[in-house]
TrEMBL record, chain A:
Name of the protein described by the UniProt record: Sorting nexin-7-like
All copies of domain PX, residue ranges: 78-199
Coiled coil (UniProt feature): 377-411
Transmembrane segments: none
InterPro entries in the cross-refs: AH/BAR_dom_sf (IPR027267), PX_dom (IPR001683), PX_dom_sf (IPR036871), PX_SNX7 (IPR042130), Vps5_C (IPR015404)
UniProtKB/TrEMBL annotation, chain B:
Biological process annotations from GO: positive regulation of autophagosome assembly; protein transport
Originating species: Sinocyclocheilus grahami
Protein name: PX domain-containing protein
Sorted UniProt keywords: Protein transport, Transport
PROSITE patterns linked to this entry: PX (PS50195)
Domain PX: 44-171
Family statement: Belongs to the sorting nexin family.
GO molecular function, one term: phosphatidylinositol-3-phosphate binding
InterPro entries documented for this protein: AH/BAR_dom_sf, PX_dom, PX_dom_sf, PX_SNX4, SNX4, SNX4_BAR
Transmembrane segments: none
GO CC term, one of those recorded: SNARE complex
Amino acid sequence: MSGSVVDNTVSSGNSSAAIPTDISGQILDLDEDDDLEVFSKDTTLTDGSSLNASMQTSSASMINQYKFEEEEEDADTKDIFVTVDNPESHVTAIETYITYRVETKTTRSEFDSSEFEVRRRYQDFLWLKGRLEEAHPTLIVHPLPEKFVMKGMVERFNEDFIETRRSALHKFLNKIAEHPIFSSSEDFKIFLTAGSGELTSHKKQGPGFLSRMGETVKAVAAAVRGVRSRPQEFTDMQEYVEAFSQKISSIDKVTQRIVREQKEYLEELKECGPTYALWSQSEEELAEPLKNVAGCVDKCCKETDEQVKHLNDHLIPVLHEYVLCADTLKAVLRRRDNIQADFEAKTEALATKKADRDADSKVLSLAWGSLVGRSPEEVKQQKQQKLKGEIKEMRDELDKTEDRLEWANNALKSDWTRWQKGMRTDLRSAFIDTAERNVSYYEKCLAVWESFLQSQRTDAEGNGNVDFS
Amino acid sequence: MRVSGVPVVKWDKPEFLPTHTVSSVLILPHHDNINCLLKKMEISVAEAEKRTGKNAVNMQETYTVYLIETRPVDAASEGTNPALDSLWRRYSEFELLRNYLLVTYPFAVVPPLPEKRAEFVWHKLSADNMDPDFVERRRVGLENFLLRVASHPVLSSDKIFYLFLTEENGWKETVFETGFQAKADSRLKALNATFRVKNPDKRFAEMKHYGDELQSVISQLLRVRARAADRLYGVYKVHGNYGRVFSEWSAIEKEMGDGLQSAGHHMDAYAASVDDILEEEEHYADQLKEYLFYADALRTVCRKHELTQYELEMAVQDLTSKKQQQEELATGTIRTFSLKGMTSKLFGQETPEQREAKLKMLETQIEEGEEQVKERNAECDEFVKSAWVDIERFKEQKDHDLRESLISYAIMQISMCKKGIQVWNNAKECFNKM
């Protein structure tokens, strides 16, 4: 089953002044904006049973890999720098698409050189994400920007859209590079370094379509079965993710609403300056102060415009990323559950088989056996042998599954802590940044009006009527 | 020039509106007038109250009355505190007073009353006349009106005005006894009539044009400002949602919880601060509105000049034509077409006696005409002189007042910015703790 994420968090730009008249001190309700459907056709598999060949190592060493919560990532110890920039459009007979330049600078020994420059398109990023999720179903991969946005007339090749996407892709790769497990992924390395031909052929490897389908069927079965006894900590995680998802979506919506209202305020404010200027043309004594006020209002308009841009370009993308993160977290928890369900199912099956083995031979099989000329003893022996073989197989399979489950749980726990820290850092700095920008906005406007007052003061003193109460 | 302060009026405001002291005077009348009433008497409109009563058609109606308080100035300066004289007036009585002044002093730019119905409101502000905020702002506007009249060089010495301030009962009858109504009717008719003036005083023509422009541009400014206020309200209030969500979010976070929670409080404070900000801006709007209505008063004076000028021109025209007739009759030449002339041509001239009689009549008429021209000329000159004095006075007052308004607007903006800086700095500190 391919995971499809339908995200109803972003609202359209159609704001009616739906502000009730009696609400003045109270909070405005978020009005029923048209839901903006955002489709991200994510081809990630949600089950955990397909493994990248390179990860088939013993469980012990696997556990060790996940002790990365002790590693603190310092800027000083950063040994790989990735940049995404320079979007270019490519036109072929079939399609038009955008590629981005991905530049890597690194001192890591596993890389053949210290600098790489390749061009990648969005599909390639999707592929990389899919591979990472396949290999590590219970690790948290930072979200990609959406595939496309259906919002009125926004086309894929709109400048703002491309820039927003580029910035998000840049963040995505950097998050991967910072991740202790992901950054050593072979797929990641190939993504950063391979020529386009090499990349295409590499993409064709990996578990084939049929085996993926087989795993998918199993995954569906497991999902339907459900988990019997989920450990409390994962239930807690799920509750947290539900709540976090709601809150971050709300904050995203509120911020978008603020941007809309600011823009509309700006539209009205833009008319004030010219009106004062018009007035100054009919006046003599008042002409100068009126022109001055017109200038002040115009300057404040400019500041407001920049402030809105900043919100749009800095805070909103971060909030949006974490809205997508919430969905990633939900998917990760689901995959973990599925692994556990699989384990539980296999445990049950083994128990049933064992019961079979311990039960008396069935009359029918004895009867059959005698029909084909075998003695009841022979049939019983054959049956027991067969069961013993099957039980051994199942036992082995169960052990493997148990390992996988333990590995998945530990991986998730570690990455969860890591993710929380990252979330806290990212959101905190985004909010601080916004607050600082708002302070700066007000400071600039303050200066504008104070200079007006100053000019009137010197004027008044010049004219001899000092009348400042 | 000192103006009396006004005590705080506490109304039954809805809980979310803060009560605060409203400055009594919109603008300080600055014109230094030695003899005006305001120098001798403190005047204020202290309170407003709802009353119910039966109106002219014997139906129950609710209306508002305003308390006018007066006190002689000299006594206060000596340290003693004499009792305030006070009486109640309703808006319609103010209107009556103003109409009386308009008719009696046509050359004066008569101060305007605050608007009868709330206009240029942005949505949150009520357009309801009974709304306490509207009533409060009207109280301030009425006080301002009285102070303006009381500081006017001419209007302040009017007896009816003095009685308005001091005689509660029987004032209405006294006003009607002056017979101003008759003049009012004819004045109204004249002002609404269309007529062409050949030689208006250029200055008045320019003033009228200026009045038109002022009215148009202030209307536009008030409209634009109201819309911007509406939007600004929206921006601030949406931030209140941050407060709510941050608070809910903080419940599920461990380390981030406190920072989020306290940041949320500051967002609530930010959202709430817009009410005060916009209420102050409303005072600025009121100051603009006063001059919007003043523009109308200015145009009225210019129109009145046109009327007197027109009447003069009519009298002159009449006299000229009479003189012409006289000349024609005397010399026998017909320069102007007249039926009489034609018929006399066709049917023969008139008798000498008839001509004599006619000439005599014309002479009388010419004499009267010359008298009238002289009168109207004097009227016109008189009007132009006194009107222009008042217009000059008005110009100075307007320049001073509006400049003060712009300054107070800037001060408001500065205060708003300071509040914003404080809130966001506080929020930033909370975010730092996240």
